[in-house]
Amino acid sequence: MGNPYLRSIWLATLILFFSSICFAQFSVDKADLIETTAKREFNRSIINKYLNSPDASDIIAALLSISHSEDTSFISEIIKLDFNKYGKWISFALGQIGNSFTAKEFLWSKLINISCNCSEYIQSAIGKLGDEKDLTKLIEIYNKQSEIIGIEDAVLQFRNKNITNEQCKSILVKEFSKPNTSFQRKKKILFTLARTGSDSTVNNELILLLNHSTDTELFQLALMNFRIQKSFPLDSSLINSLYYKNDAIKIELVKCLPYLTDSRIAFTFLKKILTKSESSENLLIETLKALRSIKPNNNFYDNTLSSEIKKLILHSSKKVIVNEAIKTYSYLFGVEELFQDSAFVNAISGVNLIQLIIERKKELSFQQIQKIYHRILTAKEKLNALELIISTKEYYSDVLLFENFILNEMRSNEPAVISIIADGIDSNFISKNSEELKKIILTQTIRFKNDSDFIEAEISLINLAKKISDKFQNELVLKLSDTELYSLRKYLNRLNANISSGKKPIHNFHEIISNSFKYSYAVILTDKGTIEIKFKPEIAPFTVGNFITLARKKFYNGIIFHRVVPGFVIQAGDPTGTGWGGPGYEIISEFSPEEFYSGIVGIASAGKDTEGSQFFIMQGYYPHLNGRYTLFAEVIKGLDVVMKISEDDKIISIDLYE
Description:
Strands 3-4-6-5-7-2-1-8 form an 8-stranded antiparallel sheet. The chain is globular, with a radius of gyration of 26 Å. A hairpin with a 2-residue loop joins strand 1 and strand 2. It is α+β, with helices and mostly antiparallel strands. The chain is 57% helix and 7% strand.
């Protein structure tokens, strides 16, 4: 294969060359292509104009458009393009369009050509299109050549479809351990290895990495692999050195500590974090969770620990911290301890009180639970309480009262309430109340069939209809076929091929597109500091334009970060603060082959073409999101603020700059 050092220089040169011709895809002068893509028309004359252009950015923009079409008839045109020049984008488009024998055979032919310069993109596409036989074939080729750069991309895509092979782990370990494997590849290999269950044979390499690396994402991924293995073979000195790293690393460290062989050491470190006044909110949350993952041992507990957790319950301004502290205190010291102190009972919220009452594991009066539920004022807490009530129905003595409560709540005006109940009730409840459920399902689905905020609730109710009977679901599908929601029509089309998904209506296209390329940056002012992001309209013009349009209307001002998964993402953009709200309309998905790593900004969705106003910012490297969520911006200043954001922190304002 030649000198590996020279080969790496050659590859780097190629990457720089191809990057230089691919810097601009969509632009303001491609409004017709953006519009036909946004409307999901995919007008062939428009697309062919760009596909046959001498301009590289035109061709790439056309390929991005085609990638959303789900129309395999475009394949014959795509594979005529210069693969050496557009291989990354051709591979991405083929992988996204949908399963096709022609596409797969074309990709295989390119993969076995050793002069190919975009092996990882080809393999990612094969992983998206392939089945078990394709994975076996890929492994056979690898075993013959032992030099397929990017095999981790294919394995990751296969794993996303729950297709795996035990040989994958040994291949990933081998690739990770090679001296010429780049740090960027090591990251994806470690993430993919974690997704496939990890493997202890890589542990020595992981420990070496933890001792010598300076890359936060590599630290996170190494620790993630130990957590997946449920084994943490580190000594105290290394753990101590990790304790003094940044919060992103400490959070992942805390998640691993319950898997130390010596639980006393784990407990000591967790207690140390809990009692440190400078510990961040997210670190406290993960520490409280970790304390519940260690087998209870009274020899570890003392008054200091009890006192610190009680302080959090009584004095923390963060409801999520109070909630986790209550769970942890009742786990370590018993729920009766809290009930003996009226100050605690009076201080905690309704959902926490319901949780504690249930944890006493006594026969409950549902009337008591119901009274507490109706006193809860915030929508987010109400949803948490509802999920708790449904999941613990076996504790209630007055079953009829419980059933009437559930049926009444299903008549709610809140999509989250409807969806949580529809997804949560069991077969016994459905069988016993099927006639009443039919009436509610018919009323609610027809009532909200044109409301984009209810798309998830609609799908939940349609799925519930099937649990009642196939006949009832079929009748319901036909009744909903005239919905104005494109995403709902697409879902109905999967259940009944005679229902056309049609075109996607867009009411403010020109305003959105004019905004897409008007501003380059946004500064998000939060109560933890400022975050500056740079937009990427070249790959997601409509998403960028929509975000800017909403920001100009002050839509985001005062909205909270309703979802934070420490080490993964922070998410905001829902005016209801529950995770179920939006701007009152849906926009399109704009997937691309670009990667999701720390600081990348993406749009949340409930499925393809259901995006709206909710956006998320990455706190780590998670490549399984690539090509599955819209990436539209990147943090260029304030990543430290991103890491500090915790649940219920607020966006004060968003300012835009050209």
